[in-house]
Amino acid sequence: xxxxxxxxxxxxxxxxxxxxxxxxxxxxxxxxxxxxxxxxxxxxxxxxxxxxxxxxxxxxxxxxxxxxxxxxxxxxxxxxxxxxxxxxxxxxxxxxxxxxxxxxxxxxxxxxxxxxxxxxxxxxxxxxxxxxxxxxxxxxxxxxxxxxxx
Length: 150
Description:
The chain has helices spanning 3-8, 13-29, 45-54, 64-69, 72-85, 96-104; strands spanning 131-133, 136-139, 142-144.
């Protein structure tokens, strides 16, 4: 779900762009967006992809099975496009027309900013901490519970 829908209950065309970006990152990475990746700090799929892309380790993101189907260059092209789609501010996200154009052509892809739902270090309040134990996450006593089958 897009940040503007989660926080303000506002849905727009750019909310669909956000969802498409998440799906694109899931396909390229072969990972789901409902888990944490990396332990310190714990990262969502969006944060995990952002950190590796920012560190020029984009090849580590790509699901190896995709390299058998097409060139790594095609898979790597999808990462910044996916990150553009999941920008926190809806105005920073491209339109779906622009996304299709970027995917189907050889144009230069704009550099994405830090995406939505990233845990940022707070310089104003260093006492706020993120605790993750056994898949449970809590920030300021707000919890997310994942329900599963037995």
